[in-house]
Amino acid sequence: MTREAQRDSETETGSGEQSEPRPVDWTDPDTFARALEQSETREKGNCFEDFAEGDRLQHDPGLTLTRWGNESWMSQTLNHDPAYWRSDAAAERGFDGPPIHPDYLTAATLGITVEDLSEKGGYFLGRTDVRFPGAPVYAGTELRVESEVVSTATSSSRPEFGIVTWRTRGKDAATGEVLCSYERTNMIPRREPVATDGGGSATAADADGDEDGSGLPETFVTPDGGFFEDFVDALETAEGRDAAVAYRHERGRTQDDVTVASLPLATLNTAKQHHNADAMADSPSGDIVTYGDVTRSTALGHARSDERTWREVGFDDEKFHTFVAPGDTVYAFTRVLSADNDASIDAAGTVRFEHIAFNQDDEPVYSGTRIAEIRKRTA
């Protein structure tokens, strides 16, 4: 640099001072790509090591159950029971007005827990003892949710995961009354994989069965209608024979943007599996997947359309067998297990069902047992 040029530079920047660094264009694609490579991601959710038996978690932020949220969930999953839509039908059941549907209540209770419990991902292994011990729930109720870690265990087949079981309760924020409770089990990613012996528990496929391996009865009996007496009659027809009361439901629901992303997000379910197509591109599904409670509620909606349901009592042994992706269609199959004349009112009896949701390829995607009070024809 000539002496004259140096003087010009010092005149611009001040004698002896270094010039300001050239501004960085953070939005330049190459520059931004390098910035992403150098930066750390602030991760959400908890790993397996963050859970210990007996831990209690209070889940924020809670959710106000609304009629809009209730009706959106019910309409999109084809749950059209008039008592949850119309004041006159609600009054006939003894409700003060159309209440919050148990499926929406269950989904909202679980949705609020996702950020703390399962946002890291991992397989939903099952849920049981789903119960609604409180009075009917109405729009405007503020839901608060808490969970307790029941157990933690090493996965013998997947060393990169651990298995965690939680007992979760959804409560009325104003009264503290438990509105919904259940126990659920998930695989949760570990920070560091652990060494295992590679063993695993035996499956049903390992057991000895009949000659064709199916174990299915010779005859399937279909109830003549949806009243309690119809289920009793069908069970009596099957009794003493190689028969089961089992049937499929006609309706199906193809999964779209509303069921896959909108419904879970409305319950504050933050799991990326339901709304982040980029993150899911390299997953086994290759795409975002339907929230399990949407799959379940859709199948139950199909089943309820063929029943005279009076009241939901509870659910047990719920499992999700494979993912449901956009474009998949959810159908339902029902097996009637038992019928008992005892119920909360004389106008109904109690029926225990097994429901199986399946897709367009006839693959089971959900299964669970359900206890419901079914209206009597003669009441």
Automatic annotation (TrEMBL):
<dbReference type="InterPro" id="IPR052342">
    <property type="entry name" value="MCH/BMMD"/>
</dbReference>
<feature type="compositionally biased region" description="Basic and acidic residues">
    <location>
        <begin position="1"/>
        <end position="10"/>
    </location>
</feature>
<protein>
    <submittedName>
        <fullName>MaoC domain-containing protein dehydratase</fullName>
    </submittedName>
</protein>
<feature type="region of interest" description="Disordered">
    <location>
        <begin position="1"/>
        <end position="45"/>
    </location>
</feature>
<dbReference type="Pfam" id="PF19315">
    <property type="entry name" value="MC_hydratase"/>
</dbReference>
<dbReference type="InterPro" id="IPR045672">
    <property type="entry name" value="MC_hydratase_acr"/>
</dbReference>
<dbReference type="InterPro" id="IPR048274">
    <property type="entry name" value="MC_hydratase"/>
</dbReference>
<dbReference type="GO" id="GO:0016829">
    <property type="term" value="F:lyase activity"/>
</dbReference>
<feature type="region of interest" description="Disordered">
    <location>
        <begin position="190"/>
        <end position="219"/>
    </location>
</feature>
<dbReference type="InterPro" id="IPR029069">
    <property type="entry name" value="HotDog_dom_sf"/>
</dbReference>
